[in-house]
Hints:
The protein has 406 residues and is α+β, with helices and mostly antiparallel strands. The protein folds into two domains: 7-145, Cytidine Deaminase, domain 2; 160-387, no CATH class. Helix content is 58%, strand content 10%. It has helices spanning 7-18, 51-64, 77-91, 117-123, 132-139, 148-155, 160-182, 196-213, 223-232, 236-256, 261-274, 281-293, 299-311, 316-326, 331-338, 343-350, 359-371, 374-387, 402-405; strands at residues 25-32, 35-43, 68-74, 96-104, 107-112, 125-126. The protein has a six-stranded mixed beta sheet, with helices on both faces. Strand 4 and strand 5 form a beta hairpin. It is elongated, with a radius of gyration of 25 Å. The N and C termini lie far apart (70 Å).
Amino acid sequence: MSDLVGESDFIAVLPHIIGYHPTNELWLVLAHGDDMVATLPCTLPLVPLDDQLSQQLLDVINRTGANQFVLVGYGPDNVVTPAFDALMRRLAPHLAMMAAYRVHDGRYYTFCGCPDACDTYTRGEPIPGESPAVARAVVEGWVAHPDRDAAHAYLTPVGGHERHAINYWALLTVLHMAADFLRPDNHDGTTVRPSVAVAVDDARARLAAAVRTYRDRSAHLDDKALNRLAFAVLVPPVFDEALALIGAAADTDRRHHTDTVDAHERLWLDIMRRTHASIAALPCVLYANAAMANGRAPLIPLMALDYAAAFDPTCAPAKTLYSTIERGITAREHVAALASRTVQQVRDAAGPARAEWMHAQAEKFVHVVGSFDRMDLLAAQRLTWKARKRPELPAAPDLRPPHLTA
Length: 406
């Protein structure tokens, strides 16, 4: 908040931090001095706070070192004001209140924290349509969707004919990856299987290259590269390395005021939306981690984790992060946890390559092949012809032994 000019800037930019323009919601913003340390949502009308919820709120306050708070309620006076009264009574013994604002129909009303609060409360002030803070947020990719449903739709994986085409590209990826292991390398036709170490090194290289690609906001991976990376993070050390890279980028951003973690957020959002459902859960988790590390309000990462659970109800990293967010972890705490291990430390902890690292990949290979149907091929052909970017779909690699292909 230290770089915001005034309260109108703060009100204008808050939806970009949240990810959408709230309706009938109350947001509690915790601060330490001029630094915003946490944003916590409540649905209106506010349910009476029980002792457990109050204790969770106090735990967040103690962990973040917050010493001030701001309340911003979105909705009519008869819904917002009772919620203000309830929260102010709970928080007053622990924190100093900076201000409380009600936002409704394009105007904001100041309840306190301003010398002319009474005057502002009676007539309200228009929310600025143009603001340097909002312009900066937009340039940095902080989208404020019209409402929560629109934010949810933004994260929704693509569907329809494009979904069928995605399934086809995933199948081709599986076949090409299998061909890498089965292609004969010797003149006599015998098969030389690449080691697990080679496969893991290739996955790590693909991860680093993809992050570099997404530093260009207009760039993205093609279908083949995207699916290869989605398969790559099924290898546990590669997934852990992706988390470490997110943490390192966010820590660098915090110390040097850069925006390198944005590339990670865009990368994993693209993959979670465009890859096969069988392998989309971990990209959802990585997007949620990157969004949290980038300072997004908790609801956006939680939406991504809901998708992860839908794709794979047994996904342990999704369950762990979900419970962590529910306990009220802040972006600063999350970055500190992710940055606690460097990429080299992750590799050292993993040790020598082991065959069991590839088991998850093999399992997903079976899922992708088993779920393929004729509609996937037809949809891929239709989209390819329509785009006229690829005159024909690439052929699947020939996996037959050499003596049958002569």
